[in-house]
Write a structure and sequence with these properties.
The strands form 2 sheets. The protein has an 8-stranded mixed sheet, sandwiched between helices. It has a 4-stranded mixed sheet with strand order 4-3-10-9, with helices on one face. The model has no long low-confidence stretch (mean pLDDT 94). The protein has 338 residues and is of the alpha/beta class. Helix content is 46%, strand content 14%. It has 15 helices and 12 strands. It is globular and about 55 Å long. The longest helix has 20 residues.
Length: 338
């Protein structure tokens, strides 16, 4: 099975390295810097195990290298999906299975609109931190895919078996749209981290930021329900209950969080990483999606509007970003929601 990865950033490179290390040939399509680091690429899982790629790993900037892959993992940011789809349309065989492992609700549909290949939705629940040529898993959560047609079921099952072989927790769900909706709600904390410049762990230890996250969750969940979506539980608790837990005293929240998820103290949200790098963020496909959904039902998502506007303000501002204090963010959301 030849595996392609389109968009070898932190998540894509991590998956490519571990799959290659498990014995499957892999083509990583990434930036020139990744090609230069190809001889040194390693992945480190949450247990601290170091994974080295196989000798046949191909790291390239040439899209044509994907022309013979059996399965292509798409891990580009949501803002780049349309461009990636146009590129893949020129190189992928119709027989290739495409698996979208991206944040947001609509990336699989965006890919299907351009590709003749079968596209399966999916999501990666865990974060990966990049340090040079080393890609380290920093949170514990599953990788989830939708189901494939009989034509591609064997390829998808082989990919899943390979990932499980190297310790990745994988689930296949028929309700993948509900899973993506549930992941989107959890990803609303990305904006909180981006606005304040704090790590995921720091945001969950700060009472003001937990309150902010809880407001985003409650609002997002209500908007999704009004729009006819039924978000699935991702970390063992339904979104509405997570929102309630977040407002409890510190000691209770810390104990509950430890049972649900492991977080490396250095783990940072992908939105914050992009912001610090001076890149456009995915905020329009995270809190921005909640704002759009609310508008489609005649509502406003005021707390999420604060996050979208703040992140865009920081994107346009000076470098390094002038991050907000937790108290300032809480005050802005509290004033807006009344």
């Amino acid at each position: 099975m030849l595996v392609g990865v389109c968009g070898a950033g932190a998540i894509g490179a991590y998956l490519g390295v571990v799959v290659s290390g498990a014995g499957e040939p892999v083509v990583l399509l990434g930036r020139p810097a990744l090609v230069e680091q190809a001889p040194s690429l390693t992945a480190v899982d949450l247990a601290g195990r170091v994974h080295h790629p196989g000798a046949d790993l191909q790291v390239t900037v040439e899209p044509g290298a994907l022309s013979k892959v059996d399965v292509c993992l798409v891990t580009v940011k949501s803002r780049d999906t349309a461009a990636a789809a146009r590129m893949l349309r020129e190189v992928l065989p119709v027989s290739t299975l495409v698996v979208s492992l991206q944040n947001g609700l609509h990336n699989a549909q965006r890919l299907r609109a351009s590709l003749a290949c079968e596209v399966v939705g999916g999501m990666v629940g865990f974060n990966v931190r990049r340090e040079g040529a080393t890609f380290t898993q920093t949170t514990r959560a599953p990788l989830v895919t939708g189901t494939a047609s009989p034509r591609h079921r064997a390829v998808l099952h082989r990919l899943i078996a390979t990932l499980k072989q190297v310790g990745v927790v994988v689930a296949v769900r028929e309700d993948i749209d509900a899973v993506l909706a549930g992941k989107l709600l959890l990803n609303l904390n990305n904006g909180v981290c981006a606005v304040t410049g704090l790590s995921i762990a720091e945001s969950l230890r700060n009472r003001d930021l937990r309150w902010c996250f809880a407001q985003l969750l409650r609002e997002g969940h209500a908007v999704m329900r009004a729009a006819g979506l039924r978000p699935a539980s991702i970390v063992g608790l339904p979104p509405w209950l997570i929102a309630r837990v977040l407002t409890l005293p510190d000691a209770i929240v810390v104990r509950a969080a430890r049972k649900m998820v492991s977080v490396d103290p250095r783990a940072r949200s992908s939105t914050l990483v992009d912001l610090e790098a001076g890149k456009p963020t995915e905020i329009d496909d995270l809190s921005g999606e909640i704002v759009r959904l609310a508008a489609s039902t005649g509502r406003r998502a005021r707390a999420n509007e604060v996050i979208v506007n703040a992140v865009h303000q920081l994107e346009r501002g000076a470098r390094p970003p002038a991050f907000w204090s937790p108290a300032r963010l809480r005050g802005a959301i509290a004033q807006t929601i009344g």
